[in-house]
Write a structure and sequence with these properties.
184 residues, 3-stranded antiparallel sheet, mainly alpha, single chain, elongated, 4 helices, 2 domains
């Protein structure tokens, strides 16, 4: 085959984007960004996988998009809305456990304070055994109950926040649909 039989490749200028995310969200983000004209850059994905074969939790999504894409301004605006919604979903996911964690830690610290009081009561001269027992009971409860408190508050927060997260996902799908319509 000589050089005259080959078809010439037309030059396409690309812009590139790199996103570091949890590996569990990789497919979701890739599907979303494809609605705005981005495509996965396979060459870079292979090289990143070769460099970090044990990388499980965090993933790097490398994408490219034609610089001369039609409706680029509108697609970029929709893309920013998409990213804002994804950020809000992450914040809502963290909000499910943040309040529960705070209350569990506070109760654990209070239990530790009671245990410290119990320890001081038994090591005092003369030892106050009754006071030691009276302070040890809420101390042990303060160490045991945070787990159950955490589970209960997390359950309530999940019930309260789940509809908000679903509404954000619906908003994301509408944004992606608008972006996909602008591509063609």
């Amino acid at each position: 085959m000589d050089g005259t039989d080959r078809q010439r490749k037309t030059f396409v200028g690309y812009e590139y984007k790199e996103i570091v995310t949890d590996s569990s969200k990789l497919s979701f983000l890739l599907d979303g960004y494809e609605s705005f004209g981005w495509e996965e850059d396979e060459r870079l994905m292979e090289s990143a996988a070769a460099k970090n074969p044990g990388l499980q939790q965090r993933a790097v999504l490398r994408m490219k998009r034609n610089r001369k894409i039609v409706n680029k301004v509108e697609l970029t605006r929709l893309e920013k809305n998409f990213e804002a919604c994804v950020d809000e979903i992450e914040k809502l996911e963290r909000a499910k456990t943040s309040t529960a964690t705070m209350y569990a830690i506070i109760l654990g610290v209070i239990g530790t304070a009671f245990m410290a009081g119990s320890t001081f009561a038994v090591t005092a001269q003369p030892p106050y055994y009754v006071l030691c027992i009276l302070l040890a009971i809420p101390g042990f409860l303060g160490w045991i109950l945070p787990y159950f408190l955490y589970k209960r508050i997390t359950g309530k927060q999940t019930e309260k926040i789940a509809p908000l997260i679903e509404a954000k996902y619906d908003e994301i799908y509408e944004i992606c649909e608008k972006g996909n319509k602008r591509l063609y």
